[in-house]
Design goal:
The complex is a heterodimer of chains A (550) and B (441). Chain A has 550 residues and is of the alpha+beta class. Chain A has helices at 2-35, 46-60, 65-72, 105-110, 160-175, 212-221, 266-269, 271-277, 332-340, 348-355, 386-389, 393-404, 408-416, 423-447, 466-469; strands spanning 124-132, 135-141, 147-152, 182-187, 192-201, 207-209, 230-236, 241-242, 288-295, 298-305, 314-315, 318-319, 451-457, 460-465, 479-485, 492-498, 502-504, 516-523, 534-539, 542-548. Chain A has 3 domains: 47-105 and 246-328 and 367-447, no CATH class; 112-240, no CATH class; 451-548, Immunoglobulins (Immunoglobulin-like). In chain A, helix 13 crosses helix 14. The termini of chain A are far apart. Chain B has a 16-stranded antiparallel beta sheet with strand order 1-2-3-4-5-6-7-8-9-10-11-14-15-16-17-18. Chain B has a two-stranded antiparallel sheet with strand order 12-13. In chain B, strand 16 and strand 17 form a beta hairpin. The longest helix of chain B is centred in the first third of the chain and has 27 residues, at 2-28. The chains are: A alpha+beta (550), B alpha+beta (441). The interface between A and B is large, with 60 and 52 residues.
């Protein structure tokens, strides 16, 4: 008996130890888990981006059997971060702003703002500088202790670079991307003060102490307006821990919230479409930023787009070169075509340039930004990111829908943020953007199924035809085809056609505790075939799921 | 009072009912942007297993490449290199790089502008004094100097004195005439020391007439190489003039006209060069001959500067006089890429120095077209045909002896300076690949 009691006692002791051990381990684990959100630095540079995208990926992508399989069997790779309603939920990459609710004109013009820009109550302390080509840029600290990166316009093109950067930041922000604060900063030379210990990267490649004399030499290169003011775009240096760039290809494995490869994120794929809208040819990984911040007691990663001086008609050195937007930095396809055509093939940009008399027709503040021979299907950013190539019809539709949510006035409001002295320049950019928005949307609405805004009430499934709503397709001759499939898409229950934007859904089609699958297609009088399908999942309470065909 | 209380109560009830209805309606409206997925998000690899295995060896290269590139960019090594190059130029030192014609071995060296180095260039802007040193391991070593003046007294007159020492380690030789064989391959080592003077008048920026005088000492060293025999053994039954070396005096007159828009990347214009030279052997050398040489090319734009057709004619004739001879190394030579001035002319599907002859005729046709351009960076493709032959006397020219080359090239240039020239040419002696940093013409 004693032995038995002793054994029970021993077992109890062991159990107590095990429980204690598990408890301690658990506690340690929790503590460790809180500490393990340590993000690695993900470095990139212009040339490494060039090597990775233009040389390495272009080569090894040919070894991707899945890619060949998709090409061969014409299969698309759907985006993996879309929710049941075919939308992109908010994340560190993207926040539904204009998509969720149309922003006011004031909000569109304002963009992302933490404050009104650098505080000029005291001179800005120049803490660092860098000379790129001949033009400098400065890192400054204001009276509040906030830091900013100031970029300037090139000589002869006042407002070109600064305007492009400010406006593009408004567009990306309104679309839903994370951007730093950008403000226009008119500033006098005496409002700068070189901080002790300030350094500069000279164009010689050497880092030197930034002297007042050298700083003044830099200023002499920069254009001033009639009032003697310099014009800068001030990018606020965001608070948080910097972890380099984010890839357009793979996910950040050290971020538990980053589960989907970026290549398969719809908002990353759609960046190529948005870049084509605002002519942001040098949208590239090396111009992104990953910053971790503490939000609601948790460390979260925010993925920023950060450099927009290559948007609209601008580049850092002046107006855009004619080929930008039409060819990759190294474009094997275009080059091969030209080789095979023995030089007698005129590339679209060459034709456009020839038709323009080989002169930039736009004002110096606008640069080279026109819609002649603009083809949304062929727009190319500087590097061939696979994510932009993988855009499916569903992704394209999502992007086009978002584009069309910006009214003409909304676009005008965002362009207004560029603070152009001549209103004509703002109007030229606005007009080009409005036209380009429509060109892009028309392209995607014609390729994808343009039906949206599904609702189910009173036994009626109603929807919107965005192509008709935006005047890109005629209602005349448009017929909507509906197929009702039983649960699991096993058999067709019914097939209907209508010219109206709603269908009566019979209650017997909807199973008592299940969903019915409805496939909707559009037939236009001008098109020979039906559009791709959009699948609606319905139950008695309403729409449970939407999926546009990829 | 009760009635009022009842009314108030009714209003309250109605209000609550409406509020409840609104609330109910709001609850029913689904959040289209909610993170509700068909299946939970999960981390997936970008590629399949087999594709990843295929990619793996390349990944091993990618990482160090990326790190190297990022290090270069972070430390601005590219800019530093450019700055060092520009500083060297400012100080009067011009680094020279290229590829030897005899093989793809790179050469390196420098041109020293002595007046700039001595800080005297500003004082004497029309004078120049340069020294050039070039070395290509196991191929050649060259050192030369020039001193002279341009635009003497503001006129078109110019004059210079020159010295040059050149040592060629492995000059190929296959015999003389159009019917030689690749099988008779051998080579010789040649050492040339040259002292001379030039004087001329520049009629306009495009036309120049130059008279020259040189003393040239040539030593030939025969040797066996690469398992092949000595030049004297291979060609034992043949008379190869100049095989023992010579002391030569050259008197020359050159008329040049050049209207090209760029010397290295011309898209229009033309050039013509006419050379007449008398060479006299001294110190027992039997060499005595006239040299006539024409080199001309026209660059036709085909409706665009992006498409250029180049037609080039090269002709040389060496005429023995007074029973003298023409040393074989002074003869016309064909074969190779033709990118080095002193070497054999461009007949690209044949090896460098493939043909030696008293006379030579060569026609190059090349169509160049731009296939990519970005700012000042250009990539051009070229399709070319070279047709030529060497022969003895002019009446010995035979159409059937013409040798032909066909090929393609890819030329990469920046700011109209050729950075790389990849060419491949095919002919009846095989296919040859070239990597150069110059164009033939």
């Amino acid at each position: 008996m004693n032995m038995k009691l002793k054994k029970i006692k021993q077992i109890r002791q062991v159990l107590a130890f095990v429980i204690l051990g598990v408890g301690i381990f658990g506690l340690m684990g929790t503590a460790m888990a809180q500490e393990t959100v340590k993000f690695k630095e993900s470095e990139s540079s212009f040339y490494s981006d060039l090597f990775d995208q233009n040389i390495y990926n272009e080569g090894v992508n040919q070894l991707d059997l899945g890619r060949w399989g998709r090409k061969l069997f014409k299969k698309e790779l759907p985006s993996k971060n879309v929710n049941v309603f075919d939308e992109v939920p908010d994340s560190g990459f993207f926040t539904n702003r204009q998509g969720r609710e149309k922003l006011s004109l004031e909000a569109l013009e304002k963009g992302y703002q933490e404050n009104a820009g650098p505080d000029l109550s005291k001179p800005l302390q120049v803490i660092a500088a860098e000379q790129r080509g001949i033009y400098p840029r400065f890192w400054v600290r204001d009276a509040r202790g906030d830091e900013y990166l100031l970029e300037f316009d090139p000589q002869g093109n006042m407002e070109l670079v600064t305007g492009a950067e400010i406006i593009a930041s408004r567009f990306y922000y309104a679309l839903g991307y994370t951007v730093p604060q950008f403000t226009i900063l008119p500033i006098k030379p005496e409002q700068f003060l070189v901080a002790p210990g300030a350094t500069t990267w000279e164009d010689t490649g050497f880092k030197k102490k930034l002297s007042q004399k050298r700083f003044e030499e830099y200023l002499m290169i920069l254009p001033q307006n009639e009032e003697g003011l310099y014009r800068a775009s001030a990018c606020k240096i965001m608070k948080g821990d910097y972890h380099g760039i984010f890839s357009f290809e793979s996910r950040r494995k050290d971020d538990p919230a980053d589960l989907v490869n970026h290549r398969d994120r719809r908002e990353i794929r759609a960046l190529g479409i948005f870049a084509s809208w605002i002519n942001h040819y040098d949208l590239r990984e090396s111009d992104t930023l990953d910053i971790s911040i503490e939000e609601n007691g948790q460390v979260v990663m925010k993925h920023y787009l950060a450099d927009f001086i290559g948007a609209f008609g601008s580049t850092q050195e002046g107006p855009k070169d004619p080929m930008l937007g039409y060819e990759y930095e190294v474009d094997y396809g275009e080059t091969s075509k030209s080789i095979l055509a023995l030089g007698f093939r005129e590339k679209p940009w060459q034709k456009k340039w020839r038709l323009a008399g080989e002169k930039i027709q736009g004002a110096p503040a606008v640069g080279y930004f026109t819609n002649e021979l603009f083809d949304p299907a062929r727009y190319k950013t500087q590097f061939p990111y696979e994510a932009f190539r993988l855009v499916t019809r569903a992704d394209g539709f999502w992007a086009a829908k978002l584009l069309m949510s910006f009214s003409d006035e909304g676009i005008r409001a965002m362009v207004k943020a560029g603070r152009y002295r001549d209103a004509k320049n703002a109007e030229v950019i606005t007009k080009t953007l409005i036209e380009r928005r429509d060109i892009i949307a028309r392209y995607w609405f014609s390729r994808a199924n343009p039906l949206d805004g599904f609702s189910f009430s009173g036994g009626k499934l109603s929807f919107k035809d965005l192509a008709v709503e935006y005047g890109m397709a005629s209602k005349e001759g448009t017929v909507y085809h509906l197929e009702v499939m039983s649960e699991g898409k096993k058999e067709k229950i019914a097939q209907l056609e209508t010219k109206e934007l709603d269908f009566d859904i019979r209650s017997e089609w909807i199973p008592a505790n299940g969903e019915v699958r409805i496939l909707l297609r559009v037939a236009r009088a001008s098109a020979k075939t039906l559009s791709p399908a959009v699948t609606i999942l319905l139950n008695a309470t309403g729409v449970q799921g939407i999926r546009h065909e990829d | 009072m009760i009635a009022r209380a009842k009314k108030l109560f009714c209003f309250l009830c109605l209000g609550l009912f409406v509020f409840a209805l609104i609330g109910y309606g709001e609850e029913k409206k689904a959040d289209l942007y909610a993170p509700v997925y068909t299946k939970p998000l999960s981390a997936e690899p970008l590629k399949g297993v087999f594709s990843r295995v295929l990619e793996f060896p390349f990944k091993l290269i990618k990482w160090p490449m990326d790190q190297g590139i990022i290090f270069t960019e972070n430390h601005r090594l590219d800019k530093k290199t450019k700055w060092i190059y520009e500083q060297a130029l400012k100080q009067g030192i011009k680094p020279l790089f290229g590829f030897a014609d005899v093989s793809a071995i790179p050469y390196y060296g420098a041109e020293l502008n002595l007046l700039t180095i001595a800080r005297q260039k500003e004082k004497y802007p029309d004078f120049f004094a340069t020294t050039t040193i070039l070395h290509c391991p196991s191929v050649f070593f060259n050192v030369g100097s020039e001193i002279g003046a341009q635009k003497i007294h503001g006129t078109g007159f110019h004059a210079k004195g020159l010295f040059n020492y050149d040592r060629q380690e492995k000059e190929p030789f296959y015999g003389i005439g159009p019917h030689t064989s690749m099988g008779d391959s051998t080579s010789y080592r040649m050492e040339t020391t040259q002292v001379g003077a030039r004087a001329g008048y520049e009629f306009s920026p495009t036309i120049d007439l130059v008279a020259g005088f040189d003393y040239k000492k040539v030593n030939i060293f025969n040797r066996a190489h690469d398992g092949k025999g000595d030049i004297r053994t291979i060609f034992s039954g043949q008379n190869i003039p100049g095989i023992g070396g010579d002391d030569l005096l050259n008197y020359s007159l050159t008329l040049g006209r050049d209207t090209r828009d760029s010397k290295d990347d011309a898209t229009c214009g033309s050039y013509q060069k006419f050379l007449f030279q008398f060479t006299d052997g001294v110190n027992g050398s039997p060499a005595r001959f006239f040299k006539y040489q024409i080199d001309m090319a026209k660059y036709f734009r085909l409706a665009s500067p992006r498409r250029v057709l180049v037609a080039r004619l090269f002709a040389e004739h060496n005429e023995k006089i007074d029973h003298g001879n023409i040393p074989f190394y002074e003869m016309a030579k064909l074969g190779g890429a033709g990118t080095n001035v002193r070497d054999s002319e461009a007949l690209r599907s044949f090896v460098y120095n493939r043909f030696y002859g008293e006379s030579a005729l060569l026609l190059n046709l090349e169509y160049r077209y731009t296939v990519m351009e970005y700012k000042e960076f250009k990539v051009k493709t070229a399709i070319f045909s070279d047709t030529g032959e060497v022969f003895g006397k002019i009446h010995q020219f035979r159409l059937k002896d013409l040798r032909e080359s066909y090929g393609i090239g890819l030329y990469i240039s920046y700011a109209r300076n050729t950075l790389l020239n990849f060419s491949v040419a095919h002919g009846n002696e095989g296919t040859y690949f070239y990597i150069k940093n110059k164009l033939a013409f």
